[in-house]
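Private note to self, pasted from the team thread so I don't lose it. Backbone tokens:
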């Protein structure tokens, strides 16, 4: 079975604890603290593998964890870093937070490798806490906790053209006729239950990728049948081809079919209606002479709306050349940038929501210095790179949304005063 969805639990590695020890060597009196730092926890990394085309591996194993950092040792020995875990996914995989459905990462385009969960920072050994008044500290910093998250993986097929239509209108036949794809073909509904990709070649110029999306039914946008699974695969396409049974061999009205499919597209995602559309009126070789010409009826209805109609026979090949060259012209005239879903969920934001304690107080020896400490602050600093623009923006967001800025103002902070957090000093300005 084609696996295009999977829900998995991921966890980064926790940081190793710092070590408490003092030098004990012959002829070295009062050797001082020498406890080493703990190792960094491993990251959870997603990476695109061009050789994969499904999420089958994640159907059987649901839990993935990076390695924990080792604790520090004597003689300033640094603990070993935890091993990263690299999860291979097909190109086009969208990683979402399972609880909210928000996008964490879209593994397509230039984004072929992304760290989704960062490992915890290793704790400092007691060597870092020696002072003039405390030359043998008995304290070392614990390693930071791991991050954990349940994520939803969704594979959204990357194709230039999406082939749409109700069941049994001839999509698989058309795909096999115009490309190198070999889908299963039979005269019953839902022959196709998986999306098929085919490459349409043109002599002397670049071709395009076409996807046969399994037949839609009414109510697909609400998840009826396999609706969501089917609709998901046309989100990245640039052009849509509506295939209809012009001969009405199963009693369907081709004009009504177009409106019904567009209704499902709009209900699923209104942005779908902005994609260029083409109508392929199939089975023209089965139209009885003397009957009303259904192709002309389709043209009168939809060409005033800017949608071209082509009469074709997927079996004989009639009209396919004209259809494909028009689609090629459409593709050449529109933006070639692939559809990439923007990040909506940032795992580090979970630290903002965590109800961990912190304190805000004025320094005893200087009324212009304010100290902010506690597990909430320590954890945030461990996962944030303040040297990067993105990290510093997150830091500012954290201070505001956690209520820390408000608490500083209540404590009497003024512009130009200093905020001190575990060795970091910041000037306060509104």
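Design output:
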């Amino acid at each position: 079975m084609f696996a295009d969805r999977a829900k998995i639990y991921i966890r980064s590695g926790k940081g190793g604890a710092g070590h408490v020890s003092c030098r004990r060597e012959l002829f070295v009196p009062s050797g001082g603290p020498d406890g080493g730092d703990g190792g960094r926890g491993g990251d959870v990394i997603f990476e695109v593998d061009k050789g994969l085309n499904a999420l089958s591996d994640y159907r059987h194993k649901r839990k993935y964890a990076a390695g924990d950092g080792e604790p520090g040792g004597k003689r300033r020995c640094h603990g070993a870093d935890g091993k990263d875990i690299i999860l291979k996914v097909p190109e086009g995989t969208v990683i979402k937070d399972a609880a909210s459905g928000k996008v964490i990462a879209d593994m397509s385009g230039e984004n072929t490798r992304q760290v989704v969960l960062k490992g915890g920072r290793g704790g400092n050994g007691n060597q870092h806490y020696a002072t003039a008044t405390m030359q043998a500290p008995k304290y070392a910093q614990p390693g930071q906790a791991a991050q954990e998250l349940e994520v939803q993986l969704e594979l959204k097929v990357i194709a230039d053209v999406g082939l749409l239509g109700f069941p049994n209108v001839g999509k698989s036949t058309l795909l096999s006729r115009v490309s190198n794809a070999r889908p299963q073909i039979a005269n019953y509904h839902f022959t196709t239950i998986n999306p098929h990709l085919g490459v349409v070649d043109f002599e002397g110029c670049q071709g395009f990728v076409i996807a046969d999306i399994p037949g839609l039914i009414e109510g697909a946008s609400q998840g009826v049948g396999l609706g969501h699974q089917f609709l998901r695969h046309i989100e990245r396409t640039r052009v849509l081809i509506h295939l209809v049974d012009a001969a009405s061999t199963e009693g369907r009205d081709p004009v009504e079919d177009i409106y019904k499919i567009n209704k499902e597209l709009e209900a699923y995602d209104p942005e779908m209606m902005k994609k260029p559309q083409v109508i392929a009126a199939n089975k023209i070789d089965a139209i009885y002479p003397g009957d009303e010409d259904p192709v002309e009826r389709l043209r009168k209805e939809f060409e005033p709306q800017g949608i071209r109609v082509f009469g074709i026979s997927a079996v004989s090949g009639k009209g396919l050349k004209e259809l494909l060259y028009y689609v090629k012209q459409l593709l050449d005239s529109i933006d070639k940038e692939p559809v990439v879903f923007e990040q909506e969920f940032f795992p580090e934001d979970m630290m903002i929501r965590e109800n961990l304690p912190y304190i805000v107080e004025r320094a005893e020896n200087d009324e212009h210095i304010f100290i902010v400490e506690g597990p909430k602050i320590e954890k945030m600093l461990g996962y944030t790179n303040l040297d990067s623009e993105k990290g510093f923006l997150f830091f500012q967001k954290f201070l505001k949304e956690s209520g820390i800025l408000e608490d500083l103002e209540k404590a009497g902070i003024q512009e130009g005063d200093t905020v001190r957090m575990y060795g970091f000093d910041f000037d306060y300005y509104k």
